[in-house]
Amino acid sequence: MRNKKVIKFSVILFFAMSILAFGYSLGFFTDFLPIRGSYRELYDSYQLFNRELFKYTGIAIAPMLLLFVFDNHSTNQYGIINKVLALVTGGFALFQSYFVLTQIEFLRSGYQLIDVEEVRIYYPKYELSEVAFDAAYIIFIGLAIAAVLLIAISVVNKKDKEVK
Fold it and tell me: Is the pLDDT of residue 95 over 90?
């Protein structure tokens, strides 16, 4: 029973963190739209980052949903399909986390160079906010931890092991 709870917790944690990362990819770019007139090059780099992030999170959703289709969160029957899905999905989530965590500081440094008065010409109420950058650390470190847990559980569990 304890093993089954650990499996369920790890899969649901991974699912929740993946959905959170997908939501982040949808909302990341929203606060940066006002800079497009004054800082076109920075805006374009954010747009490129956001496209890649959205693509990666979207790609991660499909195999993650298959984990639920194969009842990976409520069973201890870790056959080859469940193991492969968990390894592919977890591995891709680790890559996705690595991508974000290696890029986010570069993007933040460019954002810190913005002259807010220049942006306020077009958007008078605009304020600089680094919340999106801080949230990236929390979300994608959490996703990496959940991915490692998912991979570890898929490697450790044996098929047809009796759960009590």
Answer: yes
